[in-house]
Specification:
single chain, mainly alpha, 7 helices
Length: 162
């Protein structure tokens, strides 16, 4: 929580957002995406609600950003954080709605870190609290399919093709 507060204070104190461009630039959308992930890691009802709010803000900021300032990975991560937040609240419909953005994406756009998140979410959906619900089973299947396809070498364009 202290690190998140420091990040907020640092952004507010920055006199010129373009002062340290390039590698040192850290868009607000990325900050909100990371904050959402952090709140989920902390756990508990208040942090889950905060994670949902942060991830939603990250998505809005990414969608409003210029194409050069968008990070597809961060956008996928924010959607997965929203999905997990809804899952932790027992809202399978909300989970499914938030997953659609990632599950419908071209597999070549899904990074290894997003594949790991898909697998972790799939594992969570297998928990006893979902009692074998058909919707949870279907989501598990779709997550598995997307993770396998995205991790497949055929999902990556060949660098040797002419």
């Amino acid at each position: 929580m202290a690190a998140l507060a420091d990040a907020d204070r640092s952004r507010e104190a920055a006199s010129d957002p373009d002062e340290a461009p390039g590698l040192f630039a850290f868009p607000a959308a990325k900050q909100f995406a990371y904050a959402g992930t952090t709140h989920l890691a902390l756990g508990g009802p208040a942090h889950i609600q905060q994670a949902i709010a942060c991830a939603g803000t990250a998505i809005r900021l990414h969608r409003d950003a210029e194409n050069d300032d968008r990070s597809v990975g961060d956008l996928f991560a924010a959607h997965l954080d929203l999905a997990r937040g809804h899952l932790l609240l027992g809202d399978l419909d909300g989970t499914e709605a938030m997953l659609a953005f990632v599950l419908d994406a071209p597999p070549e756009r899904i990074s290894a870190s997003i594949v790991r998140r898909l697998i972790a979410l799939r594992r969570e959906l297998g928990g006893p609290q979902y009692g074998g619900a058909a919707q949870a089973a279907d989501l598990r299947e779709r997550l598995q399919y997307t993770a396998v396809i995205a991790a497949s070498p055929t999902a990556r364009p060949s660098e040797l093709s002419t």
